[in-house]
């Protein structure tokens, strides 16, 4: 087995801060100080967090500084902050590595009953590697992005080492200890007071131990099988040489003829001659519950669970228990701050790692080969839920990731169960949100998530009103994110002037996607122009001038930002659209505003999956906007190419699907797109995305029909048809915004696998 130091990576590591090993008391103080300082982030007071963290130089303080810059980087996507975050997290990695290496040689370091010495630094390192990898993927450099995927692998290996230590601890517990763990009460091996006295925690004793009256006899077993009394044993001592480089040694995994005992045989310090052993006779042991005055003991009639779970099941009892239960303690096994840091950090890191990898779209499948393992969405979310139980920064960040997944990515996808496993856990999310707002009442993060939750419930007006009344956040990146959420909701509500105002506000708060924001502003005024064109020519001209003015701002504000050395997908999309309209205006000899085809605002709504958040009245407005293109007020519809008519078909089908009209939606897709030659949709400035998206929409319609009553397993024929369309989309060549559709396809495949459909 590799040493933990080997998991953490070799190579040259620069020393950061103080590298002198901490004893148990100093380490405890450093963890508590750093964890207290970093909680200022959850009050939107990043400056205070940085000020407090700068007073310390331990790996925990270095990691705290990394968390601060990571939050800023991921909330704002600003390159200068990302570079700062990369450097800060690199320093945290080096410091954690150095302290972990020294911890194995320090006799006064904290001795956990669960983990080997230095595991807390391993968790520091894994968290720094994970955050650094996420920042690197968002970086403009392809090289940095590839390095980041390799860092994900290193973080995985580090966390795997932590999990192995937990499995060994759990495998070492007795059957009676397992049974007592399943009962209502539990005995903890350590407390804060014992930690302060530098007393190493011990493995929990069985809860019924104090009530047991045991009549046991010790016997020594000779090689010939004849027992002798333990009092006649001869003690033999052997000199042992200390090895400073010793970390772990694997226990023998295969022992011929050895069986796992079904009851505890004792761990006794009794001398025995060489080649002999001491055997515990449990034949006369019994447990007399009534003889004990201890509280919370089971009755004599209670049948305790004496089954031996697998290592995975055991680990779930340690780390995957139900969350947010009133009065429930944060851990079943230890309340020592170091163990709490390890358990909460490992759950958060491993959870987000498994979740991220599970969501990678097919377009990036090659990069997953660098990682070398597959994601697991279910296990990842379970671990994140467990992390939320802890009242520290890991719990808060675990909650943020869960909300980002359920209110963001989960809400973005279509082919997911409407009920049961894998569905949106509305009740649980509301309970978590209430808990987080109680823990961190000053944070705008939870207010933003509450607005997102309202949007997921199709309460768009309430979401906009709620976020407008929350006040301004002192954290600039969070304020920008709040305005972006508000902008999307106003767009889904078809409030065109407020949509423009909101996106213009976003331009003043960040420097990420200004070209896209100007495009949406122009698209909003296209709708206003079309609504007033036949009723008020003067007002229509004003709207047209504003629309053209915003569209002219698109090109100068795109191409500056890159993702993995490539232009941002939306930058490519909006520039191609404008080039297409300019070519049509010249070909048709008309004004630019009249050369614009099917509603560009509805296209934006589709790619953000806004139709899923709309109520029927909102969907009806979208259908009216789409109908304008083939109506009498548009004199150019007869000139439109197949790809433009394909846009109308896909958008109309998506709106109909979300209103429940799947039969009509499928008919439109079959007639207008799928029955046509794929090659006819291709071209330099054509909208080739309509052909693969039509196939995805067919899959989404079939899923909706199968899940109408919440029992898709009863409609396997429809699920098989759904699979066929998804496989075709997954194998499609590159097209506009294919990564966005690819994420939907990845999520859809995961859903089908729940019901036995492999794809």
From TrEMBL:
Indicate whether Transport appears among the record's keywords.
no
Q: Which residues lie in Basic and acidic residues bias regions?
A: 234-243
**Which keywords has UniProt assigned to this entry?**
Membrane, Transmembrane, Transmembrane helix
- For this protein, the parts annotated as crossing the membrane are 350-371, 392-409
Compositional bias of type Low complexity: which residue ranges? Answer: 173-197
Q: Name one GO cellular component term.
A: nucleus
Q: For the region Disordered, what residue ranges are annotated?
A: 173-249
Q: Where is the composition biased (Polar residues)?
A: 211-220
Question: Which PANTHER family does this UniProt record tie to the protein?
Answer: TETRATRICOPEPTIDE REPEAT PROTEIN 39 FAMILY MEMBER, TETRATRICOPEPTIDE REPEAT PROTEIN 39C
Q: Function, please? A: Inclusion body (IB) resident protein that interacts strongly with lipid droplet (LD) proteins. Involved in LD-mediated IB clearing after protein folding stress, probably by enabling access to the IBs of an LD-stored soluble sterol derivative that acts as a chaperone in inclusion clearing.
Q: How does it assemble?
A: Interacts with lipid droplet proteins.
Q: What is this protein called?
A: Inclusion body clearance protein IML2
């Amino acid at each position: 087995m590799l040493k933990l130091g080997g998991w953490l990576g070799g190579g040259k590591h620069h020393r950061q801060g103080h590298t002198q090993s901490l004893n148990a008391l100093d380490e405890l103080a450093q963890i508590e100080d750093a964890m207290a300082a970093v909680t200022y982030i959850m009050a939107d007071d990043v400056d205070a967090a940085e000020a407090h963290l700068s007073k310390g130089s331990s790996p925990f303080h270095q990691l705290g500084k990394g968390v601060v810059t990571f939050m800023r980087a991921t909330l704002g996507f600003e390159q200068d902050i990302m570079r700062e975050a990369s450097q800060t997290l690199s320093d945290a990695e080096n410091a954690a590595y150095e302290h972990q290496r020294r911890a194995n040689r320090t006799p006064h370091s904290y001795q956990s009953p669960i983990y080997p010495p230095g595991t807390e630094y391993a968790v520091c390192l894994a968290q720094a590697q994970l955050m650094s990898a996420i920042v690197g993927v968002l970086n403009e450099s392809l090289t940095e992005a590839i390095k980041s995927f390799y860092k994900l692998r290193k973080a995985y290996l580090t966390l795997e080492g932590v999990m192995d230590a937990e499995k060994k601890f759990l495998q070492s517990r007795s059957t009676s200890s397992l049974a007592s763990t399943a009962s209502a009460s539990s005995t903890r091996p350590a407390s804060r007071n014992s930690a302060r006295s530098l007393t190493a925690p011990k493995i929990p004793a069985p809860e019924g131990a104090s009530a047991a009256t045991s009549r046991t006899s010790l016997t020594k077993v000779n090689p010939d099988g004849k027992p002798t009394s333990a009092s006649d044993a001869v003690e033999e001592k052997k000199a042992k040489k200390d090895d400073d480089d010793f970390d772990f040694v694997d226990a023998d995994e295969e022992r011929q003829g050895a069986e796992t005992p079904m009851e505890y045989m004792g761990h006794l310090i009794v001398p025995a001659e060489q080649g002999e052993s001491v055997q515990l006779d449990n034949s006369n042991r019994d447990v007399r519950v009534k003889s004990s005055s201890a509280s919370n003991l089971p009755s004599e009639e209670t049948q305790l669970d004496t089954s031996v779970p697998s290592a995975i099941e055991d680990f779930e009892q340690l780390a995957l228990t139900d969350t947010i239960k009133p009065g429930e303690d944060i851990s079943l096994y230890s309340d020592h701050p170091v163990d709490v840091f390890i358990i909460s950090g490992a759950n958060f890191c491993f959870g987000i790692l498994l979740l991220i990898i599970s969501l990678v779209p097919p377009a990036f499948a090659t990069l997953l080969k660098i990682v070398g393992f597959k994601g697991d969405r279910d296990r990842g979310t379970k671990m994140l839920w467990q992390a939320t139980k802890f009242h520290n920064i890991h719990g808060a960040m675990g909650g943020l990731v869960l909300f980002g997944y359920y209110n963001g990515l989960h809400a973005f996808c279509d082919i997911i169960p409407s009920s049961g496993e894998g569905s949106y856990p509305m009740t649980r999310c509301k309970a978590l949100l209430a808990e987080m707002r109680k823990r961190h009442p000053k944070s705008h993060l939870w207010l933003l998530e509450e607005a997102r939750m309202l949007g997921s419930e199709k309460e768009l007006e309430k979401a906009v009103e709620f976020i407008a009344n929350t006040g301004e956040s002192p954290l600039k990146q969070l304020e920008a994110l709040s305005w972006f959420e508000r902008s999307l909701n106003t767009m889904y509500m078809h409030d065109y002037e407020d949509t423009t105002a909101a996106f213009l506000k976003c331009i003043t708060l960040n420097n990420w996607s200004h070209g896209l924001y100007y495009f949406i502003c122009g698209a909003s005024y296209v709708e206003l122009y079309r609504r007033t064109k036949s009723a008020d020519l003067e007002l229509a001209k004003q709207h047209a001038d504003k629309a053209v003015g915003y569209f002219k701002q698109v090109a100068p504000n795109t191409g500056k930002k890159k993702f993995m050395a490539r232009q941002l997908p939306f930058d490519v999309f909006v520039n191609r659209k404008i080039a297409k309209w300019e070519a049509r205006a010249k070909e048709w000899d008309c004004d630019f505003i009249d050369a614009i085809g099917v509603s560009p605002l509805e296209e934006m709504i589709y790619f953000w999956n806004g139709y899923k958040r709309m109520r029927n009245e909102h969907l009806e407005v979208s259908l009216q906007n789409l109908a304008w293109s083939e109506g009498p007020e548009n004199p150019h519809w007869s000139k439109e190419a197949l790809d433009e008519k394909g846009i109308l078909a896909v958008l109309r089908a998506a709106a109909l699907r979300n209103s429940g009209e799947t039969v009509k939606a499928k008919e439109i897709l079959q007639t207008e797109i799928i029955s046509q030659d794929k090659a006819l949709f291709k071209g330099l400035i054509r909208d080739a995305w309509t052909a693969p998206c039509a196939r995805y929409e067919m899959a989404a319609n079939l899923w909706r029909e199968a899940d109408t009553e919440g029992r898709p397993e009863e409609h396997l024929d429809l699920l098989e048809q759904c699979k066929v369309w998804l496989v075709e989309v997954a194998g499609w060549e590159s097209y506009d915004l294919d990564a966005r559709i690819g994420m939907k396809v990845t999520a859809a495949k995961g859903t089908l696998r729940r019901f036995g459909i492999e794809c």
